[in-house]
Amino acid sequence: MNNTVLLSSFMDSFNKVFIEDDRWKSYLEGMAVTIAVSILAIIIGVAIGLTVAIVKNINLNTGKLKILNKIGDFYVTVIRGIPVMVQLLFMYFVVLFAFDYKIITGAIVFGINSGAYVAEIFRGGIMSIDKGQMEAGRSLGLSYGKTMSKVIVPQAMKNAIPPLGNEFIALIKETAIIGTIGIVDITKAADDIRSVTYEFFLPLAAAALMYLVIVMTLTKVMKIVERRLGKSDTRS
Amino acid sequence: MIRVVDLHKHFGALKVLNGIDINIEKGEKVAVIGPSGSGKSTFLRCINLLEQPTAGQIFFEEKEITYYQPLNKLGLIIADKKIPRLNKTADKYKAKLDILEAKLSEIKMTNTSIPSPEIGEGNDSQNDATAVDTSSILDKQVIRTNKKIAAVKSKMIAATVESESIQKRMEINDSVLGKPKVKINDIRKNMGMVFQHFNLFPHMTVLDNIIAAPTESLNYEVKKIIADSDLTKDFMTIEKPILQTKKAPEGLAKAEYSIANKEYLQVKAEYDAKVKIMATKTKAKLHAKIKPHALQLLERIGLTEKALSYPNTLSGGQKQRIAIIRALAMRPDVMLFDEPTSALDPEMVGEVLDLIKQLAEEGMTMIIVTHEMNFAKEVATRVLFMDGGLIMEENTPQELFGAPKNERLKTFLSKVL
Question: Looking at CA atoms only, how far is residue B152 from chain A in angstroms?
């Protein structure tokens, strides 16, 4: 008796939260937005991060690129010192106020933000490579750039994969604040449905589950990449 | 083949090389021995400019390879100002040092004047305790002063050496002005280097390790071949009209000039087209040769079956032999060995030394920094003994090991042999 009441009230909630007005669609749309923003941000972040890390490394080894190195330092300091929420609002209301594509704005903000962290991760990765590798490359007549791209960076990448995975996971979850500039991502979609239906548990649980699925997928991908890069470690 | 003239290298306050002069002929096998910290490795690493020397010249096949960035006007002014300041600092520390040393001797004097507890009256325990106290305080003072002296001394030396380095830099400035920058990457292709810790690329298979550098330097090889070809030689004999100027040169009618120009450009276009075809052909030919050459080298050391394994799976001796053939894959004219067997297990040393010996017998010019005296005796045609950043003695192995003249060499040999 009691069970049937519970079940029917649950079915009622489920109906309201997912079925009515095709609400399940807005979750999926939100998920698509979250994934799109994250992927764009990761691409921008890695590009910026790798550039900054290499500039810093060149400066460390040869003393060249002083000004670029200073800019890199400034960038990392500023970005890491300001909450991403403030960066998002600043970019949306001040810098790109005339720009219509909110999703791109969001991706740029998270990309620039992530770039600062990725730069430090790559820098650590490059620094973890033995100095002898650079010397061996140079002694064979390879240029600094060639040695960097063929010898140092591939090895640094391998060392950088675990912290990089961490950074990407943090980035995906941080995108949950993107709703503040009016982009409907997973969190915003769930929240909107909550405020319409007065149902709290199911929409938020659905959102949580979706983030979990995305992060787990990413973890899997990173593991595969790690294994592929680490094939030279196997002693067989 | 390699000529080194008055080579200096300072690392901050540390003077590692203090004027090395040596001339190494083609086919010579030079062993460099000496106590650790004598600058052997630094000397070797300066030869292929893995370390930028502070001053001095290095010639490879009579071409100078050392390059120093000339100081500009601002740099000269700064250096001019810096030297007196550094000298002043050095003097200041010298004065401090004198004071401290005087103080130290004073403390020591008082220390000896205090009666030691054994001599004091044994019954009076209080007196005894105070005596012990004062002496321990004095001991502490001595230790503290000694520490201060060491600190001041190191600062003084740092200032002196820096000022010396800057002076050296200024002295050579006139001579380095206007000298072309050497393409060191191209020079290094002719100098193979083998490291103490192998430095194989761990993310590449053995075969990739060997072919990486030859593959990357294909363009350089192609350029060299084309520059030496008859095609280029013929082209170079053609007289060049002045192409850069729009105006006809004096004494030449405009029409005449433009015809000459046109003809030249036509010839040049033909030449360029031919070069392009030749470059692609040569590149393909050379590229096809790289892998067989690498496999041939691998076969020579009997590690063909390891071609596709990663370096992590190999033993130290195998790694070092692969490092040697990796350098050989560039077909170098000279090989530099930086303590090739120092990081190996004793049982692996033999195989590596055998390979080096084989290379020596084939007539490769080589410079070997080593602690293996017997090996040096056996293989080298000349042995250098280095100490304190200088070549203290150089001679044939028989003479150097049999009848050493230098005192330090004698003590060194008595320790290691």
Answer: 30
